[in-house]
Specification:
CATH class: Alpha Beta
Structural class: alpha/beta
Strand content: 25-35%
CATH superfamily: Carbon-nitrogen hydrolase
CATH architecture: 4-Layer Sandwich
Number of helices: 7
Order of helices and strands: EHEHHEEEEEHEHEEHEEEH
CATH topology: Nitrilase/N-carbamoyl-D-aminoacid amidohydrolase
Oligomer: single chain
Number of domains: 1
Mean pLDDT: 94
Low-confidence stretches: none
Distance between the termini: 45 Å
Length: 309
């Protein structure tokens, strides 16, 4: 089975342009024969890259202006904003995983979540996973997610689950997915480099799953004019703010495609889902290697949207 990773620059602070980019690349990947297409973390409206270069407590006005723009351009799931993506997945018979900035429909309706969507080849929204714990400065942008999205979904491409960026370092979150018979472990991320890649290899070996890590890849010139004017922290347009390093790893921990470093495009790999069974013959952490007589495991899957505020 062929899978695809869209290692592309987001269209920062422009939701409609981001949706158009996703739709275009769905057609491109399907034409190449892919059954699954994965986009990076926070791809639609873009990762709030400014949080790592603005000074906390000092550049408050700039942070506030950019945050308000991101809220305005975030996606509402109870609207028709994402309908073109669902229609494209259905038209081209391809499953899609895409990171978005999600604007809450509950409470104040201004809370933002770092969300990964799993969309079936029939154009159905199978799962919305909100990042459980935003990392470091991300806490000033995104609210904490909940466990309602810790689900593995069946698609024609296999049984898919996803964790976002550094929540892949949370062993209990990983186990919540392992325990649901997952074939493909998807990690949309903003991270890169050797440490991240070694972690992805560990997770493949630990889970006995195929691991797909999809990362942003962009230069300063790819940033929105509003970001460049507010931060003045990207003077070199050729700087690789994020180099990419998307990768595909087999269930035995071996890298079979990538990492794609300082490159943009849609990249492909062929995977064989039957290798998951072989990998778990000797180590099956949610099966014959588990000790339920020793360990108890529970997930409290209450959704933010159902809580009384």
């Amino acid at each position: 089975m062929k899978i695809a990773i869209a290692q592309l620059a987001p269209t920062f602070l422009n939701r409609d342009a981001g949706i158009a980019t996703v739709v275009h690349n769905i057609a491109l990947a399907a034409a190449a024969g892919a059954k699954l297409l994965v986009f990076p973390e926070a791809f639609i409206a873009g990762y709030p890259v400014w949080i790592w270069r603005l000074r906390p407590g000092t550049d408050h006005a700039q942070s506030a202006a950019l945050h308000c723009s991101l809220v305005d351009q975030a996606c509402r799931l109870n609207s028709e904003q994402l309908a073109p993506i669902f229609a494209a997945a259905r038209e081209h018979n391809i499953s899609v995983v895409c990171g978005i900035n999600e604007r809450a429909d509950q409470g104040s309706q201004t809370a933002l979540f770092n969300t990964a969507l799993i969309i079936s080849q029939n154009g159905e929204l199978l799962n919305r996973h909100r990042k459980l714990v935003p990392t470091n400065a991300e806490k000033m942008v995104w609210a904490q997610g909940d466990a309602s999205g810790l689900k593995v979904c069946s698609t024609e491409a296999g049984r898919l689950g996803t964790l976002i960026c550094w929540e892949n370092y949370l062993p209990l979150a990983r186990y919540a997915l392992y325990n649901q018979g997952m074939d493909i472990y998807i990690a949309p991320t903003y991270d890169s480099g050797d440490t991240w890649l070694s972690s992805m290899r560990h997770i493949a070996r630990e889970s006995g799953c195929w691991v797909i890590s999809a990362n942003n890849a962009f230069q300063a010139a790819d940033l929105a004019a509003e970001i460049l004017s507010q931060t003045q922290a990207y003077p070199d347009p050729d700087e690789w703010v994020n180099p990419g390093d998307s990768v595909v790893i087999a269930p035995n921990g071996q890298v079979i495609a990538g990492p794609w470093h300082q490159q943009q495009g849609v990249f492909y790999a062929d995977i064989d889902l039957s290798q998951t069974t072989f990998a778990r013959r000797s180590l099956d952490v949610a099966g014959h290697s588990a000790r339920p007589d020793i360990f108890d495991f529970a997930v409290h899957a209450r959704s933010f949207d159902t809580q009384k505020l």
